[in-house]
């Protein structure tokens, strides 16, 4: 089969073609697994982090890609839930142990044996991939393959962040950064909580205009202070300073949720101090989001189906995966990037 493979870590500023186009064997399935003919795979910012060595450990060589939509073409002898021809998706969660205290309490995303698709095992930048039947999610009829792919990570992790904010209708929710994930989360939040007021902090004029178009109640940059305080904020920026500033806009008991797999490296010249009474007092919290559970993926697809939420996307050929990654790095963001396989 044809695939794009990451064989070594490289800096995209120096090497614009970090992935190699290769022919390799179609994966062999185990008794509880299904073989999938991949139709689309969306490209995630996490893949840029994998390529540039910021996400460790990583299996090398690896076929990246964790927003996969395709059809089942072969099933293992013990498979019960799926049959040939079923359309399924695969997200970041490839498997978890199912036995530990986290798995048993609905936090399989925190399992010490969490296996991530396209990082610990081969993913979807390929014509075929495989997965245990327990982690293949059915795709609602309504979506094309291209529309469903970005929901599997940008949508699912963003949705997990939204759940962790604990916001309800008639509350105020802030968005710090307004890229692929937060723009989907705003759509989801507005659909599920029609009386929620959304406040978007974004650096670029273009992002603020998009936020306004999507119905944001208030838009500004991080230096600006909205007149109302916020119940929660979802942060997707790679830096620290905006978080500290954003904490000042929280109400008592407010929570800031960081939806980012990594932040800028520690730099003593850029130390930011938290003022306890101004920034954290009154039971304010900072919380991170790690990975996703299988249920997060199922629930976000269900919500997107009910409320007709579809991501904007741009298509690329499999062989142009490097270009899609470079476009993410250079912030040529016009919706999600989707590989058509
Ligand atoms: Zn992702
Ligand atoms: Zn576990």
In short:
This protein folds into two domains: 2-143 and 310-340, Medium-chain alcohol dehydrogenases, catalytic domain (Quinone Oxidoreductase, Chain A, domain 1, Alpha-Beta Complex); 157-288, NAD(P)-binding Rossmann-like Domain (Rossmann fold). It is built from nine helices and 17 strands.
Walk me through the structure.
The protein has helices at 45-51, 101-104, 145-165, 180-192, 205-213, 241-247, 276-280, 294-307, 321-329; strands at residues 2-6, 19-23, 33-43, 68-75, 87-90, 93-95, 115-116, 128-132, 137-138, 172-176, 197-201, 218-220, 230-235, 250-258, 285-288, 313-317, 336-340. The protein is α/β, with parallel strands linked by helices. It has two domains: 2-143 and 310-340, Quinone Oxidoreductase, Chain A, domain 1 (Alpha-Beta Complex); 157-288, 3-Layer(aba) Sandwich (Rossmann fold). The strands form four sheets. Strands 3, 4, 5, 8, 9, 16 and 17 form a seven-stranded mixed beta sheet that branches. Strand 13 (230-235), helix 6 and strand 14 form a beta-alpha-beta unit. Helix 3 packs across helix 8 (294-307). The protein is globular. The model has no long low-confidence stretch (mean pLDDT 94). The site of one zinc ion (ZN) has 5 residues, from loops.
Order of helices and strands: EEEHEEEHEEEHEHEHEEHEHEHEHE
Mean pLDDT: 94
Output the CATH class name of the largest domain.
Answer: Alpha Beta
Taking pLDDT < 50 over at least 5 consecutive residues as the criterion, the unreliable ranges are: none
Distinct small-molecule ligands in the complex: zinc ion
């Amino acid at each position: 089969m044809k695939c794009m493979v990451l064989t070594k870590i490289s800096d995209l500023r120096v090497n614009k073609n970090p992935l190699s186009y290769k022919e390799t064997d179609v994966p062999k399935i185990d008794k509880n697994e299904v073989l999938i003919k991949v139709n689309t795979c969306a490209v995630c910012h996490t893949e840029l982090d994998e390529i540039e060595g910021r996400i460790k450990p990583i299996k090398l060589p690896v076929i990246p890609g964790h927003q996969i939509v395709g059809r089942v073409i072969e099933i293992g002898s013990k498979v019960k839930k799926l049959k040939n021809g079923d359309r399924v998706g695969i997200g970041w969660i490839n498997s978890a142990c199912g036995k530990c205290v986290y798995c048993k309490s609905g936090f399989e995303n925190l399992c010490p044996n969490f296996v991530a698709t396209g990082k610990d095992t081969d993913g979807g930048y390929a014509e075929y991939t495989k997965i245990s039947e327990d982690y293949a999610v059915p795709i609602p009829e309504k979506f094309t393959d291209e529309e469903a792919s970005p929901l599997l990570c940008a949508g699912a992790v963003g949705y997990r962040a939204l759940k962790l904010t604990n916001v309800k209708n008639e509350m105020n929710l802030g968005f710090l950064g307004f890229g692929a994930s937060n723009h989907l989360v705003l759509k989801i939040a507005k659909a599920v909580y029609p009386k929620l007021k959304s406040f978007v902090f974004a650096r670029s004029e273009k992002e603020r205009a998009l936020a306004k178009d999507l119905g944001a109640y208030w838009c500004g940059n991080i230096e600006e202070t909205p007149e109302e305080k916020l119940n929660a904020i979802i942060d997707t920026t790679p830096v620290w300073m905006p978080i500290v500033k954003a904490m000042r806009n929280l109400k008592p008991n407010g929570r800031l949720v960081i939806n980012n797999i990594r932040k800028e490296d520690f730099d003593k010249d850029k130390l930011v101090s938290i003022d306890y009474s101004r920034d954290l007092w009154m039971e304010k919290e900072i919380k991170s989001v790690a990975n996703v559970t299988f249920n997060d993926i199922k629930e976000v697809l269900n919500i997107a189906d009910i409320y007709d939420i579809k991501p904007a996307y741009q298509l690329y050929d499999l062989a142009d995966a490097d270009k899609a990654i470079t476009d993410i790095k250079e912030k040529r963001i016009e919706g999600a990037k989707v590989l058509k396989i």
